[in-house]
Amino acid sequence: MRMWVRAWAIVALLALPAHAETDRWPSRPVHIVLTFPPGGPSDLLVRAIAQTLSERVKQPVIVDNRPGGSGLIGNDLVAKAAPDGYMLGLPSCGSMAIVPNLMKLPYDRDRDLKVLTIAARVPEVVVLNPKRVQAATLGELIAYAKAHPGELTFGSTGNGSPVHLVLERMKQVGGVDILHVPYKGAVVALQDILAGQIDMTAADAPGLLPHVQSGALRALAMSDTQRLAALPDVPTFAEAGLPGVEMVNWYAVIAPAGLPAPLTEQIHAALVETLADPGLNRKLGALGLRLVSTSPEEATAFVKSETKKWGDVARAADVHLD
């Protein structure tokens, strides 16, 4: 009898550290992997979230920028991390829903990653250089493109990027022929449209706001179902007369798939509270970033539905990665 008592005592002691670690998460700094370089809208988003989350959980939350590989480098790092809650990721729809349609992944997205919540919706805002194209509305732009097939140029952030597929969807729905010019990132495309090298581009709102407000660029439409508070005069595609182009960039919080259920609940609760923070929402809302939150189950279903939607557009346009 005493042997059994001692055996159960040993088992209890061995189990204690894991439970204690879960109970007091986080007891050390948490890392959030971002699949983009510093300085862009996504970096601004994750650093603002990290700061508010850090204040809430009373531990440092460190942003780890891991760009490259169409976002797969950062996602792979999270997929192979210890499932202890100390390494999370903030990928966009590009690596989570578009790239899986275009190439083989170094991990199994559905088996190796757990989607904790969708964190933000970021519509792509279509802008033109008014010195190159005399179109005041999306309708006028479509009419011009139909009258001059293949003449207009549209810069994207790369083949297979959300910006590229929004353009392809706009071309499909509008029945127009516009030349796609892929760039290696939003900054270079923005530089070229401001310099008059291309006619149009699209991007997340934060990078475009100052140029739209100054009049250097003209915003014609955005790809969400509702307008942004930061750009109240810019219609959605549906409002501008081109329904069916509702394709929004989004960001999710991910973790290694083996994250235990109790720890998943703790981290999810902290994330939901963070994403609902009024100060954070005011700060990011002014820049055109819309924070949201979902349950892990809703987030997982959303990612799968988005994978099909973006994949359908990519296949119809015969999109391939470089």
Structure, explained:
With 322 residues, the protein is of the alpha/beta class. Helices cover 44% and strands 17% of the residues. The strands form 3 sheets. Strands 7-6-8-5-9 form a 5-stranded mixed beta sheet, with helices on both faces. The longest helix is centred in the first third of the chain and has 22 residues, at 2-23. The chain is globular, with a radius of gyration of 22 Å. The termini are far apart.
CATH architecture of the largest domain: 3-Layer(aba) Sandwich
CATH superfamily of the largest domain: Bordetella uptake gene, domain 1
What is the CATH third-level topology name of the largest domain? D-Maltodextrin-Binding Protein, domain 2
Structural class: alpha/beta
Whole-angstrom Rg: 22 Å
Poorly predicted residue ranges: 1-22
Going across the biggest sheet, name each strand in turn. Answer: 7-6-8-5-9
What is the overall number of helices?
12
Helix content: 40-55%
Please count the beta strands (DSSP E, at least 2 residues each). 11
How many angstroms does the end-to-end distance come to? 68 Å
The arrangement of helices and strands along the chain is: HEHEHEHHEEHEHEHEHEEHHEH
Query: How many domains?
Result: 2
Principal-axis shape: globular
The biggest sheet, with number of strands, parallel, antiparallel or mixed sense and barrel status, is: 5 strands, mixed
Name of the CATH first level of the largest domain: Alpha Beta
Mean pLDDT, all residues: 90
Could you tell me the strand content as a percent range? 15-25%
